[in-house]
Amino acid sequence: MEGRKRVKQVEATRQKIMLAAFPLLTGGSYDAVSMEEIALAAAVSRTSLYNHFDDKAAILDACFADEFSAGALELLGRATKISGRRERLAYVFDVFAKWAAPKKTLLLPVVLHGIRQSLAHSHEVHPLQAFFVALIECPASNADDKNDLEMLAHYLRHMYLAATLRWLASEEPGPEMFFAEMLSLFLDGAEVKRGTT
């Protein structure tokens, strides 16, 4: 009983920090906000803040992950009604593009944090990767087994991060073109055209 109470307290503090930090981090200049300001706004000690989050990117990543989790089942439900894998993935990445475009200035630290986390915790399955497994698997899959699906989802997640980084480094207002190129590479593979320069 005591363990569950502690888990609830930890989650309540985490949510309190996220709720206080989100408007600070998204309302103006991300770079101008300090961890000390976040601790003050959340009414927690700096020690407590750092026990939950290493930096601002980790907080923003957690906020976006919660936002994703809140809509993931609904998105998956709509996507799985689309019969072709290409069309299904295109639909999902169109939704992702519409979500990402207005957040462009905030996403670089979040994406870099995601890459660092992926490298540090490579044995853990990221929620986005689990979502991709379900997306690739439904309604029918060419993958022979669950390991193939996990591997494909792992590659898709990292290709998504790479496409997002390419977009963030560009002047393009939205990531649609980069996501379309990523999907083409994921679904069709790379084709070397010989005889062209």
Plain-language structure description:
- The structure is a single chain.
- 21% of the residues are buried.
- The mean pLDDT is 89.
- This protein is 73% helix and 0% strand.
- It has 197 residues and is mostly helical.
Q: Features of this protein?
A:
mainly alpha; 9 helices
Quick summary:
With 197 residues, the chain is mostly helical. It has 9 helices and no strands.
The main pleated sheet reads as: none
> What best-fitting shape do the alpha-carbon axes yield?
globular
Low-confidence stretches: none
How widely separated are the two ends? 68 Å
Order of helices and strands: HHHHHHHHH
| Proportion of residues in β-strands | under 5%
Category from helices, strands and their pairing: mainly alpha
Number of strands: 0
Q: How big is the Rg?
A: 19 Å
Portion of residues within helices: over 70%
Mean pLDDT: 89
- Count of discrete alpha- or pi-helical segments spanning 4 or more residues: 9
Describe how the helices and strands are arranged:
Blueprint lengths: L1 H25 L8 H8 L3 H7 L3 H24 L5 H16 L3 H17 L6 H11 L8 H23 L7 H13 L9
Helix pairs in contact: 1-2, 1-4, 4-6, 4-7, 5-9, 6-8, 7-8, 8-9
